[in-house]
Amino acid sequence: MNSNFCIVTLIKLTWLTTVIALQNCSNPNYFYSDNLKKMKRFEVPKHAVPWHVPFPKYQPPEFTSQHLPSEPYADPDIHNPSFKPKWNSVDGPTDRTSYEQSYRILNGYPLNPRGRTGIKGRGVLPRWGPNHAAESIVTRWKRGEKDSTMNLSSGKPVLQVVVIRRHGCSEWTLPGGLIEINSDELITLQKQLLEEALNLEFDLPPEVVVRYQEKIGAAFVNKTLIYRGYVENPRNTDNAWIESTVFHVHDEEYISVATLPLPLEEESDRPMWRDVDFSLPLFPGYYELVKKIASNMKAHW
C-alpha cells in the first residue's frame, strides 16, 4: 500500500468529535517474526487502494503464519473443509462482525473494508476478517514535589500518558491487545496493562500483583469510550485486519493507575509515562486522540 495512503474516519461521541487520520504503516515490508523476517508488500498506487477500482496487475504475495494453528483462539486454514465461518455475524464464541460496516466475501475470503494492502492471507493475525482489539489511553498530571507541573511557555499543566513501543516499530502505540475468545474489552485492557506494567515475566509477591490489579480495576470504573472502529496496523492484510475500541482513563488524584511503577525512560515492549506535547511519536490516529484529550482537559500541547 502506498505510504501516503490515509483513511479518514469521523468519530462522533458524546463529548468528543474529531477527524482522525489513520495512516498505513510507512514500511513497505510485512514483518512476521520476532527476528524481523519480512515479506515485501505489492506496491499499490493510492488511487487503486479501493476494491471497486480495477487493478488487473494486482498480484500480492500470500502469507499466513504457520505458528498460529496450534493456538486455541486461531482460525484454521481457510480451505479446511471443516471451517465454515459465519461472516459478518457472531459465530459461536467468535465475533466476526465489523464495528463499521459489512465486509465483502470474494472466493471465500473476507476483504479488508479499507482496500488493498499489498499482501493477502491472514498474516500473523489469529482470525480471518476482523480481529477485535482493545486499547487504553491512560493519563495523569505530571507532578513536581507537591503540585502539578506547569509548562512555562503555555502556562498550562502537563499531562502524561502511558505509551509503549513494540519490538520493530519506530512509532509508539497504546497499551492493549487483541481480545481473546470468551474475553471482553475490559478484561483485555486490565490484563494487558497489569502484565506490561508489572513486567510479569518476573516473579512478584502475590500481594503486589493483587494491589495493582485492584488499582487498575478501580481506574476503569470511570473509563470513557473515545473510539471504536478500524485501525491501520502493520499486521493488516487483504483478508485480516484489526478493529479496536479505545477507552480513556484518567487518575486525577494519584490513587490508581498514576501510581503504576512504569519506567520514565524507554524500554522495548515496556509501557512508560511520557509527557504529552506535539512531539509525541504515536501512530497518527492515536496521536490525534491524545491531542484532542489534551485540548479537552486544557493541558499543554
From TrEMBL:
Q: Which organism is it from?
A: Parthenolecanium corni
Q: Which molecular function GO terms apply here?
A: ADP-ribose diphosphatase activity
Pfam families registered for this protein in UniProt: NUDT9_N
Q: List the keywords (alphabetical).
A: Signal
Top-rank lineage group of the source organism: Eukaryota
* InterPro entries from the UniProt entry: NUDIX_hydrolase-like_dom_sf, NUDT9
Q: What is this protein called?
A: Nudix hydrolase domain-containing protein
Signal peptide range: 1-21
